[in-house]
Amino acid sequence: MSTDGAPLSLHRPPPTVSDVLPSERVLDLFAVPDDLRSLPGGQDGSVLAGDLVLSPGRDPQIAEQLDPRLARLAAHLDTASRRRSVRLAMPIPARDGTWVVEGWSASRYEPGSRDCAHVDVVRATGSLLHAELAQAVAEWPLATQPPRHRWDRAERIAFGAGCVDLAEFAEAQADLARELLSERTDEPLGANQLVHGDLAGKVLLDAADAPLVIDFAPYWRPVLWADAVCVLDLVMWAGADPRLMHDWTGGARLQAMLRAALFRLLADDEPDAAHVDAYRRVLRPLL
Predict the structure, then answer these.
(1) Of 24, 143, 212, 224, which has the fewest Cβ atoms less than 10 A away?
(2) What pLDDT, in 10s, does the model give residues 110-140?
């Protein structure tokens, strides 16, 4: 529970795990055996099949735009230097050239990888990754598309780009959202670029101790916002030192954290009052 690299363990509320497994067609197109093994962490419901990780619930439109770019970047990061400071899980297309089959996508399995929730390592990994993404990806065509799910919708509201109708949210959730919205200003947070909007819990250490990023959640927003989401998640769910929030109480950093908090709060699916109270305690230095 410190900011100096002490190990942390990510404890999000347990998600509902689907009993649905990839069909024979999915396994055939990804050319993997039907000897499946569940994998902890990362995308809920992911399974190991042969040398690939298969993950459910993937959007074909996002994957067709994102996965070829991530595959090129992953290859570049793995070959550009003998000392790999950051890596990406390599997306793998199906035999027919598509990136999603019946909602399942594939990435290369990394034997010996393990969870990493060291605050400094996770945040440094995000900084390195976003610097690489800024060079590799000049635009994100889906940035202006209609929201595809509740996380997209919450992100638009957080940045003032969506209709704010809080009547449909739980009372405690809406009350805190109103407080956060009242503190939001138009102070710039930096240039938009492709960022990972869910980095906490998505950094592994490979067998050589290099950080490996999985389950990319794409958003076209400032890096400062992505870092704020990461810090908030680490404090909320990984037991990171709550004093980290004191670094986000003014200027652009405050505005980034307000948007991060709105994003997470409004993306939650009917949180109970205790859950909202936990957000309120963590966000107390900001309000």
Answers:
(1) 24
(2) 999 999 979 999 999 999 999 999 999 999 9
Q: Which residues of 206-219 are buried (b: 16+ CB within 10 A; e: fewer)?
A: beeebbbbbbbbbb
- Same-domain pairing of 38 and 127: no
Counting Cβ atoms within 10 Å, is residue 66 exposed (0-12), middle (13-18) or buried (19+)? buried
Report the distance separating Cα 61 and Cα 26, nearest Å: 18
For residue 106, what are the β-bridge partners? 54, 92
pTM of the prediction?
0.91
Domain, as residue range, for 72? 20-109
Q: Which helix (H) or strand (E) holds 195?
A: strand 193-196
Starting at the edge strand that comes first in sequence, how are the strands of the sheet with 203-205 ordered?
A: 87-88, 211-213, 203-205, 114-115
pLDDT at site 165: 82
Q: How confident is the model at residue 43 (pLDDT cuts 50, 70, 90)?
A: low
Q: Cite the DSSP H helix spans in the chain.
A: 24-29, 60-79, 119-136, 150-158, 171-183, 223-237, 251-267, 273-282
Domain end point (choices 62, 94, 109):
109
Count of structural domains within the chain: 2
Does residue 194 contact residue 103 with C-beta atoms inside 8 Å?
no
How many Cβ atoms are within 10 Å of 16's Cβ, its own excluded? 7
State the CB neighbour count (10 A cutoff) for residue 35: 10
Instruction: Write the pLDDT tens digit of every residue in 78-87.
Output: 987 656 799 9
Q: Which residues neighbour 172 within 8 Å (Cβ) at sequence distance 6 or greater?
A: 271, 273, 276, 277
Looking at the structure, tell me whether residues 126 and 260 fall in a common domain.
Answer: yes
Phi/psi for 84 (5° steps) reads: -90, 110
